[in-house]
Amino acid sequence: MNFYSTGEVAKMLGVSVRSLRYYDQIGLISPNKKDEYGKRFYSDDDIVTLKKITILKMSNLSLDNIKKILSEITIEQLLYVHRDYLQQKIEELHASVHHTTALLHSMKLEGDLKWEQLIPLIQEAQTKHPTDADWNQFLDDQEQETLKEKLPKLEQDGPQVKQWINLIRRIELCLKRGDTPASEEGQIIAEDTLILSDELFAGNEELGEKFFEIRKSPEKSQEMNLYPVKEEVMHFLEAAIHVFTTNESKQRGTTVS
């Protein structure tokens, strides 16, 4: 039987070392051999298990669900799961192609097309879920799991979604009125954002900063299929938070002294 280091496995399967360590941490899969220096190695059987995990992740199963079925699922069942996932994607693409073809035929018959008829195409693009490849560019598995579980979704109608939408609206009103990020309203918005972020990212400041960096970039946001937010809104929010955190640090320093 062959054995492979964590780095070799990461390169072989296209999985980050951080992801492999996270799988080990949550008990999904652990290297079953150690050398005299404590270095851990994966066996050929471990490689097969990791390939199973990769296929199940592609089928949009969470790591928790994968952990529950991993030891029981057969290769045949795994292939069925993957086939169902691919068929679903094919059906979605066929539906999009049929709708676009119908619009093209409509244009040929009527010589024109109303903008309202393009709305379904826009909705399809906005509701498309990011793939693992999209997420893997910026976040490790643990961070992805946290965001996929907690990130507000526009198709939902919960209070958290409304709170974030209202924050964006309040910033747009500030911009319309000419309020600065350092204004009273700008600072209240900054504080509310930090409170909501703490809830969203479960106190994980590093994840919050990563997500905010993605959000500031229109290109990265588009790659992850996040709802578009105007650049001026993000600039205002970034400046407001900077002023707020700077003032907080000064106040803490004054209190300590």
From TrEMBL:
Domain HTH merR-type: 1-72
CDD domains: HTH_TipAL-Mta
Pfam families, per the entry: MerR_1 (PF13411)
Keyword DNA damage: no
Keywords from the named record: DNA-binding, Repressor, Transcription, Transcription regulation
Listed Gene3D superfamilies: 1.10.1660.10
Signal sequence, renumbered to the chain: none
Molecular-function annotations in GO: DNA binding; DNA-binding transcription factor activity
Name by which UniProt lists this protein: Transcriptional regulator (MerR family)
Annotated source species: Oceanobacillus iheyensis (strain DSM 14371 / CIP 107618 / JCM 11309 / KCTC 3954 / HTE831)
Lineage of origin: Bacteria, Bacillati, Bacillota, Bacilli, Bacillales
